[in-house]
Structures are given as C-alpha cells and as structure tokens.
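Obj.: predict assembly geometry.
Materials: sequence records (below).
Method: joint structure prediction, all chains together.
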Amino acid sequence: MRTFNKLSVALLAGAAVFAVTAQAGAAEKIVISNWDGYMPSDMLERFTAETGIEAELAVHATNEEIMGKVVAGKGKGYDVLFVSSPFVEALKNLGLVAELDHAMIPNMKNLYPEAMKLEYDPGNTHSVPYAWGTTGLCYRSDLVGETPGSWMDLLQPADALKGKVTMLSTDRWLMGAAFLAQGKSVNSTDAADLEAAKELLISAKKDLLAYDDTTFYSKLVSGEASLVHAWDGWCNYGIAENADIKYVIPEEGSDLWVDTMVVTAASENKEAAHKFLNFILQADNGAWVPANILYKVPNKAAMDALDPALVEQFPNLGMTPEELLKQEQLRDLGAGQKAFSKTVTEILASN
Amino acid sequence: MPRSLLRDWLLLGPGLTWLALFLVVPCGMLLVFAFFERGVYGGIDYIFTLENFSRAIDPLYLSIFLTSAKVAGLAAVIALLIGYPAAYAIARAPARRQTAYLVLVMLPFWSNYLIRTYAWIVLLNREGLVNKGLAGLGLVSEPLPLLYNEFAIVTGLVYNYLPFVVLAIYSSISRLNPEVLEASEDLGASAPRTFWRVTLPLTLPGVAAGAVFVFVLSIGNFITPDLLGGGRLQMVGNVIYDQFLTARDWPFGATLSFILIGIMMILLFSQAMLVRKAQGEGGIAHA
Amino acid sequence: MPSPARFWLGAHLRLVYLFLYVPIAVLMVLSFNRAGLPTAWTGFSLKWYGALAESQAIINAALNTLIVAVISTVLATLLGALLAVGMEYRRRGPGLEAMLFAPMIIPDIVLAIALLSFFTLLDFTLGLHSIILSHVVFNIAFVCAVVRTRLRSFDWAVFEASVDLGASEATTFRRIILPMIFPGVLAGAMLAFTLSVDEFIIAYFTAGAGQSSTTLPMQIYSMIRFGVTPEINAMATVVMLVSFTLVLLAQRANKGVVGV
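Observations (raw structure tokens):
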C-alpha cells in the first residue's frame, strides 16, 4: 500500500532526525548564548585553536527570552550566557548562575577598577561585564532646530518635532525616561513615582511617531524621525550612515546598563567556561567591540588601544568610566515588579 | 460495539494521545501556577493565593481584550471579504492549475515574518511608496498617516493571515458539486440567489474556519502591533508575553491565559453552534 | 466569451496576488540595499548575496527550518486528518471539541514555556526533534479544522452502504473518504507548513542549545540587536525564486494530466 510506504518513510526520517539531534554532547565543549553579531565571527574558532575546547554559539533575541528559557529549562545545555545587568541580579538570586572563580580569570585585571564594583553584582562574583553604555537622545542635528538637552525635549517635544520622535518601549527604559525627567530613581517602584511617571508618559504618547526598540536608527537615517530615545551604541549605527546624527545624554542624566557574561549553574564544563570568559577579556578580543559594533567596553586595555579617529566620529565611545559611573545603575525590581509592570501596561494600552 | 470502538480508537487515538501528552499535561501544569505567588525575583513561591484573579479583573485587562478583539475581528472580516472571492476563483479554475494557484498564495509566506513586516514599513511610512504613489497620481496633497496606527496593524494582520482564509474556504468550496449549482440555475434560480441559498450555506464551515484562524492568530500576535502599530496599542498577545517574559510573573501570566482561554472557548463554541444551525437551515443535499 | 462574473472573479484574484506580492517585491529590492538598514534605502549593492553564500549560520538555520517544517507537517497532517474524520463521523462531546480548539487559542508563550518545563522535568534531551513534537501540537488543530470543513454534511450513509456491500472499512476509507477529503488535506498541509516555517517563540523554547537546532526565525530575531542585514532578504529572495521556478516546472510537467 503506497500510503503506508510514504508513511513509514516519513516516520523513519523523523526517527533519523531524532537520533542525530538527541546525541549527547562531546566531552570538552561549551555552548554560549549571545545575540548574533555581538562577538567577532571567528571568535569561537580562535578560542578552540588556543585552548582545544570546542565552543558552539546559540543565539537569543532578547534578555527576556533567554531568561525565560533558563528559568523554565534550568539552564540545561548552556554554559555561558550574555545577559544585561538587571537580569544577572535575578539569575543570581534564583541560583541559576555559578559563582566565578577569579583565579581562573586572570584577565579580569584588564577591567577598569570601576567595573569591579557594579551594584548589581559587587566584585563581579557571578558575572563579568562585557560592554556598557547609556541611554539618551539620538537626533538629526540638521532637522531638530534647537539642540535637545533635556528628557522633556523628548517627552514634550517642540511643535516642529511632534510626530517625529520615538521612544523605547522596553519597560525599564520607557519608565526611566520619565523617572529621570522627574528627578526620580530609574529603579523606583514607589506608588507616587509610578503614578507621576504614568501621567507624563501618557501625555507624551500623543506626540510620538511610535514606540520603537529596533529600527529607530533606521528611522533617523530615512528622516522619518528627527529625535529618538536610544541606547548610545545603537545611535552610532545611525551616525555611521549620516554624520548629522548626534547623541546626547540629557542634563538630568541617564541610566548605566551593562551587558555581562555569566556561567550557568547547570554547566558541566565550568572550567572551560571560565577559560572562555578569560579569553574574551583579552585586550585584543575586547577591542573588537568598539571598533566593529561601536559599543564601549569596560576593558581598559581594549579601550586604550582604540583608534582616536573612531572616537572623533562617534564621540560617545570616548565616555570615561567616571562619566559612566555617574549614571544610575539599573537594578532588578524585586517585589516592586508587579506594580511596575501594571503601570507600563497602562501606559502602552492608553489612547 | 467493539468494532466502532476500534474505529474510534484508530481515528482519534493517535491525535488525541499527542495532544494529551504535549498539550494538556504541560499546559495544565503551567496554568496551575495561576493559584500561586510570584517569587521576588521571578519564579514561583508555592503559596496558594487567589490574588492573581483579583488583579486580573481590573478593567485595564478587559479593555485590552476588547480592543484586541475589535482589531482581530476587523482583520477577520476584511480577510473574509478579500479571501472568499479569491478562493472561489481558484476553485473554479481548471483542476490542473488549482494547486499551483494555491501554492502561489502561500509562497510569500515562506519568507520571514520580520522582513515582510519591514517591507510594510517601507510601503506605508510617510515618505513611503504608497504615499509617494498616491501623491504622484495627484490623489492626496498631504501624506496619509498609514503607519503606526490601527490601520497599519489591521493591514499587517490581513496580509499575513489572508492565505489561511483562502485555504480554509477553498477546501470547502472545492467540494461543491458544479452539477448542484447548474441544477439550481436550471431550475430558474438567479446567480445571486444560487449563491445565497446554495453556495454560501455549503461553504459556511470554510468561512467559519477561516474567520477563526484569522481571529485567534491575530489576537495572540505581538509583533505586528509592535512594529506596524508602533507599540501604541496593546493586544492580548503583548500583555501575556510581557507578563511571562518581561515581568517574569508566571502566575499572573497563567491567570490571564486562563481567562483568555475561557473566553475564547465560549466564543468558539457559540460560533460552532451558530454555523451548525445556519447550515441545518441551508438545507441542500450532500455533494 | 467569459461571463461577467467570471471576469470579475479573475480580476479580483489578480488584485489579491498583487497585494500579496508587492511587499515581497519591496523585500527583494531591499536585498540589494548597500547599508544594513532595515527600512531606509541607501544605494545598490550585491554584497549581501556574497555574504549569504558565506554565512554558514543562516544556511544551516534555513535547512533546520525546512526539516522541522516538513516533518511536523507530515505528522500533523496525518494525525489531523484522522482526527477530522473521527470527529465528523459521529457528533462528539464538548470535551473533545475543546481539546481541538485549545492549541489554536493557547498563547504561544504559554505552550512554549509549558513544553520546555515539561521536557526539563522528564529530563528529555532537546533538539530539532523537540521542536517538531511541539509544532505538531498546534498544527494538528489547524489541519483538523480545515479537513473538517469538507466533511460537514457528508452523507455517512454512503460509507455504511459501501461497507454493507462487502468492502472493508479500510478500502472504503481509501476509496471514498480519502478522495473526498484530499483537497482539504492538501490545504491543511500547506497551512501547517506555512505556520511552522515562520514560528519563532515555541521553536526557541523547545530547541536544544546550539546551532544544530537553530531555526531561521531564531537566527533572524537574534540579529535584530545588531541589525537584521539584507542577507536575510537575499535568502528570502532566493527561496522565493527557487520555489516559484519549481511551481512553474511542476505546472509544465502536469500539463494535460488531470491532476488535483
């Protein structure tokens, strides 16, 4: 019976895939989850050549997704994760990341001293900072008229900019803009602060072109937007295409976000994972980041080697650790998360 | 009757076992979290509570549901109006071409959702191709606000889910026996009358299935509202996604899902009953 | 001369194809965009096609997607079609109906987290096979719903009569039911394949860690942060053109044969 034959072929094919993909991993091999493009494409090959340890890249799209996956799956299968600072704090408190053995990461010495006392993980006991930066205003100097200097320029734009501004919609930064404008902590979950921020953000919504987390730099280049709420590194992608694009930290300040590397508690190759962290902290590997993807790194040795021409083209790459540490660091919200999330939903759902 | 039991088991057994194992058990285990507390850093504290349900009855979530249902409903109606005649045209084409026509309807959707959505941004923005085209034809003097609003969301949803409507309706139209239609016309019925009295009732299950597909896929969508809607509008899909991943509040996410599933079940059952009733009254013999 | 109704139907179908393919044309044009910007045109370049040819990660992800989509479609079509016949053969209770509605209305993120938690609890090794298992879950429901539209008001007496005349149930199924539902099965399979190819969140959660189970949507979404470059548009352009050519060739080969 032909149908039966086709069926059995399909089932066999299924079984074959199962057999191939269900194979247990080889001994010395680590799996690293990162955003695609956040490391040089040959990084893992060079790591293998140097240490003999096999390394494989798994990719994630957002902090939220890798976090959800690690919580539901207990981190099984992953050895090293790249996640942003507030998530480290949660992962640490949930017991999902391993304590680091600094003796195995001698290149930790390449970090700025400031990068050893970050509030979300003092002394870097559970994480190693990879890149860091601020959140501010990215704008077309040829289109905005007056140079923006305050968060209120975004939240209550001049008439000419109405409908030409975008804001980040990721909860922490959306609220952060209002908190900073109102002189509050970016980590606040106080009911009165939430209410005040909500009112300001709802009134700001009518002047927005859109909330945009992913294509704001493209909108600046096309001229669809003139002023956008942006992370400094991403603003640089716009600057690379159009020299009239500038970045500014508003006078009220910014937050300091840090992308970090952690070793999962479930890792069966913690030693190899430590070696990988150490490898990344080499000056030459750290230097790739600002030179290619235009993000600052907390690696002093790497930043010292940076081409001055690059800093001239992308001035925010020249921000010093002292300047960065002046900004308030993002922390996990703990029990305040419920009220915070509800406020964000109210803002996004308002019309 | 053991014989009919065996038949039931052969037909229903494999599929239902699959669903029991990979749907009912896992989702049941997750939805139970609705009755527990969120841990301080996410995760679950196993302390029984009904607090999540009292949080969920806030009018905020009801209004989000109503907004989403309106957008999803609109998308479903428009997709039906466009998709029905298209499916009809395909089903009336020469038999050997039908499969190719259907594949051509599906082909654009083997690209990728994200880059298709980016293409719509290029088409719909203020300086976009649609506005340029309209201005070039002298139809508008000012660019129309086509993007970052409900219009853009509905357009994106209709675009992405139209093929499913066409497939569902095609599946039910193609069983219509042309002889039945000819018989109806021979008996003196006009074409519109034939359509209303014969064709439509017979294809109603396809229409209903297509509408359900667009509605359920739309109400759970969170990428189109974010990218084409400019994040200005929250759909149920956005809220539930955010509770699970952004707020890491699984108990509350589970609670909202619980309620959503309940409401949708009621809607789907009423819809199925209406269709059965309407079909019963349609009263034409089988193909 | 075709009747006016036929003429308008044809015109409508052409407009629908125009609506479906205009964004695809834009997407293809963007594959030649010089800069890696998703929505702003910056000049012509062929470099992304070169980049695609060298991008092992993207090609690998595309192959994984194809494997997942094909196998999950075959399984879901088989199970879904059987379920459809079983559900329409006799009126079933609301419990079964609910179970078939459920995969469509459960939010993707719920199914995603639930399956990962479940697999973790069982200590089940993850990989492409676990994505396939998971995609079958929602695809069964869609296939079943499409096939059922063909079986509504089917006269089951025909079936009984055939059996009474001495044909076995299997033969009757093959000779009567199968041809009857075939267009629905075909439509259901296409629907399942299309849903699977584009599905991201469930695939992400149920995938194993590493390249061997990275699908194309996972790869693409992970590129958002540093720019989804026109390589992806180049990939889609190639897929479209190859599929289109295959359809044309199949159409040629099929000429004169009375097919489906």
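Conclusions so far: The CA atoms of residues 91 and 97 of chain A lie 6 Å apart.
To do: check interface contacts against the pulldown list.
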